[in-house]
Write a structure and sequence with these properties.
Blueprint (H helix, E strand, L loop, with lengths): L4 H22 L4 H9 L2 E3 L4 E3 L5 E3 L8 E6 L10 H15 L2 E7 L3 H6 L9 E3 L9 H4 L19 E5 L4 E5 L2 E2 L5 H10 L4
Parallel strand pairs: 4-5, 5-6
Antiparallel strand pairs: 1-8, 2-3, 4-7, 8-9
């Protein structure tokens, strides 16, 4: 039985494809790709519900899996006007909002302190974690509790940090808590330009 040229072409293509698949299976991945795989630990973002300055409940679950989210933690002792990240987010918030990116800030100020202070000028929700340092606090769940409360009725300090949650609801982790973004300004730029969505 003599094969037609078209049949020979199919046999050669099948051999080439099989060879390429075998080569890909036995070839180790590049070291750069391997290091990225080993470093990347993405898990679901810890959920929380907190009150904003108007005492409205903000639930992270309402936005997970529908939007990209930026969360900024800052301590009550920080000057909002001199915080470079908060200042930048205030300036670019209209662009982020038009890109359907949710921005919120978490602080250990009371809602009435947020209303009366500079944080009230921020165009995005500033949420009060008055139980900062307690085991069920978002500040603890996100690894941002900086110190134990000095007085039992006072919240613990908050270590600053910026976190990015993608539309799948995943955030980078480092051990037992989410890992803050290494370069927040770069992340903000990438979200503005649409490099990251």
């Amino acid at each position: 039985m003599k094969l037609k040229p078209r049949e020979w072409g199919l046999i050669v293509a099948a051999v080439v494809i099989t060879g390429l698949c075998w080569w890909r299976a036995v070839t180790p991945p590049r070291s750069k790709a391997m290091s990225q795989i080993m470093v990347e630990d993405r898990r679901p973002a810890p959920s929380f519900e907190l009150l904003d300055k108007e005492l409205k409940r903000f639930s992270l679950n309402a936005y997970l899996h529908r939007h990209s989210i930026l969360i900024v933690f800052f301590d009550r002792t920080e000057d909002v006007k001199s915080n470079a990240i908060l200042k930048r987010l205030k300036d670019v918030y209209p662009v982020l909002k038009s890109n359907r990116i949710i921005v919120c800030a978490i602080t250990n100020l009371l809602p009435q302190q947020v209303r009366a202070g500079d944080a009230s000028q921020l165009p995005f929700p500033v949420l009060s974690d008055v139980a900062s340092g307690q085991m069920d606090s978002p500040t603890v769940a996100w690894g941002r509790a900086a110190e134990e409360p000095v007085v039992s009725d006072q919240s613990a300090g908050i270590a600053g940090g910026v976190f990015y949650i993608d539309r799948l609801g995943l955030v980078d982790w480092n051990g037992n808590a989410p890992r803050p973004v290494d370069n927040p300004q770069h992340m903000i730029n990438a979200l503005i330009t649409g490099e990251i969505q």
